[in-house]
Amino acid sequence: MSRALYVSIGLVIITVGVVGCAPEPEPIGPVMPPPLTPTAQAPSRVNILAYINVSSGCQEPTIEVLEELDEEYGDQVSLEFVDFGDEGEGTQRWKQDGLDCMAIQVNGGLIQVWEGENGEQQIVDFRNPVGYYWTHDDLKSMVAAWVAGKAHVASEEEAQSVCPPREIVIEVDAIEVTKGDLEIGNLMIGDRVAVKFRAPLGDDSPYERASQAADMLLAWIEGPSKKPAFKRKQVEEGKWAVMLGDQTLATVTKADAELEDTTPEKLAKKWLVGVRCAMAIAVRPD
To answer: Are 228 and 278 contained in the same domain?
Structure first.
């Protein structure tokens, strides 16, 4: 079974006031401090707070860009990483700050407004991995504008003008693989294996489990909400699941864990990281 999706997803650079923007955007996340106005005095330093799952390794290109910006602007930029994948202080802080996905906050805000090189006004929401709402070029341009005193955190009215014009291709598939007497069902996102199903669940073979997960992903991507909503959840004693919103994308059983020589809890984390990384790479601009 082969699946290819052409999906409008994410929020990217637009001109404020473009006809066709949705009048009622999704909630913009945690409450932020009062935003700067275009006429407000720029701060003496550009404070970048990057909430990134550093431990997974799937956002290395973004980490490299941020570190390059930090080095380029020296004392004019302050960079801090919060590793929400460390299962410790980083994860706690990420949750306490009201986030459920990767985000880059600059001077207290996630949605940024700035003047580009050609004098045009740009507005971008820096939530979710690169490719959903923004690009690395957006990030570089925005930081340069802050250093030049030509950027501010979006007001509520400006935030409402953000709309999703980008079109992204995401390929989702389920592939059956045999290894000796073992049947494996691979959930593919792009060219990466997101989840390997090695054990049957009830009457469903590993391949059928992968196929069902692929169908669920397709339905979600085609639906009204494109925001990544993957999480790990214990559903009962000895059984964990990777959730897609309030739906179960993949259930991890003791049999799955035994075949991987691990625990259901740890395998659920591995599958969660696999899905998140595969999605992040699939939407990353070339």
So the answer is: yes
74 in a domain, yes or no?
A: yes
Measured distance CA(59)–CA(130) in Å, rounded: 9
Q: Tell me the residue range of the domain where 218 lies.
A: 167-283
pLDDT in tens, 185-221: 999 999 899 999 999 999 999 999 999 999 999 888 8
Q: What whole-number distance in Å separates Cα of residue 195 and Cα of residue 282? A: 15
Burial of residue 251 (CB within 10 Å: 0-12, 13-18, 19+) is: buried
3-state secondary structure 83-149: ECCCCCHHHHHHHHCCCCCCEEEECCECEEEEECCCCCEEEEECECCCCCCCCHHHHHHHHHHHHCC
In this prediction the pTM is 0.65
The radius of gyration computed from the CA coordinates of the chain, to the nearest angstrom, equals 20
In 3D, which of 207, 285, 280 has the Cα closest to residue 52? 280
